């Protein structure tokens, strides 16, 4: 947990001017309050992860209220380098915690399998049936995956086959009708055989 506090302080300091700040008891207390706010929110996430439940909203509210209270006490010292920045610091704390969550608990990609012309597509751009239509393909049944052997959307597990990863648009294309030469021309990464087109839009060797 101390590492979380240190990380937030580095984030805040890194965004500030390189010149040293004036001596200030108020600002010193604000740094301490910001670090403790990050620690408090991290503890909320920790308890939820340990129990396998949603984060307690009241826990987060208490953490935010504590930061606000400590901020007021700090500004009462009267020697603040800056005042009225509580909202910006709270946003920085929230962004830091969100970044940590994205690393520890990556969100599951929301994507549907799209098929057409002997090949299938996956990627976070394909969030629903309408997005498949927009790209000239048809959405497979809910929960289906791109099958490299047939180029269609099937119930998992998928068979491997040719695959093209297009990192610039975050999608992959798989199936026997896949044009690997065209994949490379379009700036993609070609996997000629035994690869799987994954829902996150990348290709992976093996099933």
Write structural notes for this entry.
- This protein has 207 residues and is of the alpha+beta class.
- The chain folds into two domains: 2-104, no CATH class; 114-205, no CATH class.
- It has helices spanning 2-14, 25-51, 57-75, 86-104, 129-134, 180-185; strands spanning 114-116, 119-123, 138-139, 145-146, 153-154, 161-166, 171-174, 189-197, 203-205.
- Strands 3-1-2-7-6-8-9 form a seven-stranded antiparallel β-sheet. A two-stranded antiparallel sheet has the order 4-5.
- β6 and β7 form a beta hairpin.
- The chain is elongated and about 70 Å long.
- It starts with a helix and ends with a strand.
- Residues 1-20 have low confidence and may be disordered.
Q: Which structural class do the helices and strands define?
A: alpha+beta
Rg, Å, rounded: 24 Å
What general outline do the C-alpha atoms trace?
Answer: elongated
Widest sheet, order of strands: 3-1-2-7-6-8-9
What's the number of extended β-strand segments? 9
The amount of beta strand, in percent, is: 15-25%
Main sheet record: 7 strands, antiparallel
Mean pLDDT: 85
The number of helical runs is: 6
Distance between the termini: 38 Å
Share in helix: 40-55%
Low-confidence stretches: 1-20
Count of domain modules: 2
Could you give the order of the helices and strands? HHHHEEHEEEEEHEE
Structure at a glance:
By secondary structure, this protein is α+β, with helices and mostly antiparallel strands. The chain contains 6 helices and 9 strands; from the N terminus they run H-H-H-H-E-E-H-E-E-E-E-E-H-E-E. It folds into 2 domains: 103 residues, no CATH class; 92 residues, no CATH class.
């Amino acid at each position: 947990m101390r590492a979380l506090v240190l990380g937030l302080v580095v984030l805040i300091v890194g965004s500030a001017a390189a010149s040293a700040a004036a001596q200030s008891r108020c600002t010193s207390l604000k740094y301490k309050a910001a670090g403790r706010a990050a620690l408090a929110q991290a503890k909320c996430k920790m308890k939820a992860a340990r129990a396998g439940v949603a984060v307690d909203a009241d826990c987060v509210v208490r953490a935010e209220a504590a930061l606000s209270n400590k901020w007021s006490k700090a500004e009462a010292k009267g020697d603040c380098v800056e005042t009225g920045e509580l909202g910006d610091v709270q946003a920085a704390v929230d962004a830091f915690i969100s970044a940590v969550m994205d690393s520890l608990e990556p969100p599951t990609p929301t994507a549907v399998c799209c098929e057409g012309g002997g090949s299938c597509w996956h990627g976070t751009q394909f969030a629903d049936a309408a997005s498949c239509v927009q790209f000239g393909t048809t959405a497979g049944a809910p929960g289906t995956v791109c099958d490299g052997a047939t180029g269609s959307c099937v119930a998992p597990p998928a068979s491997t086959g040719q695959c093209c990863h297009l990192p610039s648009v975050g999608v992959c294309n798989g199936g026997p009708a896949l044009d690997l030469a065209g994949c490379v021309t379009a700036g993609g990464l070609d996997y000629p055989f035994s690869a799987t087109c994954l829902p996150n839009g990348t290709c992976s060797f093996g099933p």
